[in-house]
Structure formats: structure tokens, C-alpha cells
Amino acid sequence: MSAVSPPTHLLGAAPPAVTRLGLGLAALGRPGYINLGHGDDVGTDKDVDAMRRRAWEVLDAAWGAGVRYLDAARSYGEAEDFLGGWLRERGHGAAVGSKWGYTYTAGWHTDAEQHEVKDHSPATLKRQWPETLAALGRRPDVYLIHSATLETGVLEDGRVLARLAALAGEGVRVGLSTSGPAQADTLWRALEVQVDGVNPLSVVQATWNLLEPSAEGALGEAHAAGWGVVVKEGVANGRLTSRSYPPPALAGICADVGATPDAVALAAVLAQPWADVVLSGATTTGQLHSNLRAGTLHLTPEHLDTLRGLAQAPGVYWRERSALPWT
């Protein structure tokens, strides 16, 4: 399959080589997710084979467009299996990230009472690492604690940290993803972790978008320390797309640059000097190509200053996100 030869760079200060734009499989690996309109995108055919075909279609489009960073997690339904099968079938060598700490529990139902269960215990790490290896058919290049928070105590758990340090010693980049209004506090603590005098953590995947930029200072500090920074939810689960009425400031800039809200929102993330990889969370090839237009847009300093006015208080943003329905 022909594809562009994309420019790559290190993830922070160390391998793997990555592209500025990546693809996250949260919406591709399971029939239910919280992105606006996800149910319409998936349609009525939601069996595993149909979902696999759709995931491979989007992965093929991403590869053809030059995307070389792919992100999954144990809790994204069959995402790791879909990705591993695609990598083996196509023979591609993209950089791959995955995450541990949540277990998918929805049983392939969109109306499940509970879609995933969080557990950052050593037992979960011990169980999920070999599951990830089996699903992907290879080691992930990046392996993250999924949605680490101060409350779970995972950054104080010596057994977890020792195991992650061992993986880092084997060449896996380990780190954490963050969620919630205290993302910055969690990352500040992660930057201080020590195992035998060394911090084994060196990658963070965080939410940063025009509505929720509160982790910016901590992300800049992580980047300055040589960490890799991956940004998720750049379009705020669909709230910064044409599926949601765009704020006037965003709509005006879309008119200025001739692009859709999602592309402008992601271009704003790409404009951040600390962002190594910005993930598309596309469910369809059409969404993917619209998202990837961000890589060709130039937002002026005036545009970026205007867009900063869209920021919400973190507590408000995360309450609204938690109220989004699974469809």
C-alpha cells in the first residue's frame, strides 16, 4: 500500500520516532463511546467483525496519510486486538502506545451500566501486560498508567513503580495518562517519582484542548525535562467539531482559514511547543481526513490569543464531559 513518507521526530528526548499527528483507537475498538454522534458513526452493524473492518479502514487511511503513532488501551474493547492484527497483516512498523489500569466490562453493549473498571493495583499490571503483548503480537513502544490520579495512589505504589522501572530498563517508554480537573497536580507528582534514584516515567498523555488547557504548565515542564508529551481529546469528544454548535470565536477563525472546527481545534494543539504527538480520535475515514487537515493550517498569534478565550474552568469542563452519553 502506497503512503507518504512522513517527517518523524523523537518522542521527547528518546525513541520511538513519531509523527506530530497520531491516531487513538478509543472510539474504534468498542461499539460504545462518549464522542458526540459515535452511535451514528458506527451505525447498526456493531458486531466484532464489522468493528474490526471499520478500524482497519481508518488505520489504512491513517497510514496512507503518514500517521505513524497509534494509541490503544486494554479498556478500549478489542482495540489492541484490532491493531495487532492490522500490524501483522500489513507488515507496518508504526510506533505503538498502550495503557493498563482499566478493564473493559461492557460486554459489547452500548447500554451497559458500567463500561470499564479502574484498578491501578500491581495485580492488574501483572495481568494486563501479557494480555497487551498477546493482543498486539509485540511489545508496545510506550506503556502508560491509564488515567493516573493522586487518589488511586499508583504513583506511591512501590511494586507498580518497580515493575514499570523494569520495563523501562528493557527499552519500553513508560509513563502515565491523565484525566480530570487535577491533571496538572498528578503530572507534577509524576515528575518527582524515583526508583533507585531514577525516574522511570518519561511519557505523559494528557487532555489539552481549547476548552481545557489547565495542564499546560505541567506539560511544558515535562517536555523541558525530556518527557514525551502526547495530547488526547483535542476536539473535546466532539464538542469542538461541527457536531456541536461552535463558539463564535472558533467559527470566525474557521471562516478565516477555510477549515472545519475540528481541524482548527487540533491545529491549536499542534501550535503548542511542548506537544510531541496530537491524537485524532476519528471513528470514520471522513473524520480522520478532516482532523488531519490540522497539519496544514497556520494559526496566527492573534488567532491563538482569541481561541484562549474559550477555556472553561476545569471543574466545569470535566463535569460536562462526565455527563456525555455512551452511544
TrEMBL record:
SUPFAM superfamilies in the record: NAD(P)-linked oxidoreductase
Signal peptide start-end: none
InterPro entries: AKR2_Oxidoreductase, NAD(P)_OxRdtase_dom_sf, NADP_OxRdtase_dom
The organism's place on the tree of life at top rank: Bacteria
Ranges of residues in domain NADP-dependent oxidoreductase: 52-310
Name of the molecule in the record: Oxidoreductase
Provenance organism: Deinococcus aetherius
